[in-house]
Amino acid sequence: VQLVDSGGGRVQAGASLRLSCVASGDVFSFNTVGWFRQAPGQERDVVAVISWRGDNKYVGESVKSRFTIFRDNAKNTVYLQMNNLKPEDTAIYSCAARAQAFGEILYQDARRYDYWGQGTHVTVSA
Length: 126
Description:
Structural class: mainly beta
Radius of gyration: 13 Å
Helix content: under 10%
């Protein structure tokens, strides 16, 4: 199973980016997927999580009004739409999927995830 993250870049504050996470197999269609980020010198934190059907979502408080997670299972892709980016959003963003199928719990602990993308860099300048 391979997850490929993309969509990062260098932008100015207030800009938008859409991150994509594409899976090589069917793991996405039936599995919970999360986006995590790690800023320099900080621990990895959850950003958003989406259930396998896409009908249940968690979005972190610090980004709740600006970020959206959604998925297209036909394309084996999960997206993270990030609007009104701020310098504090600067980090490496990685998607992750759980191996368990049909789970409904939106785990926020990165240790609960089994497959990881390589990460994509997001840099936001003031």
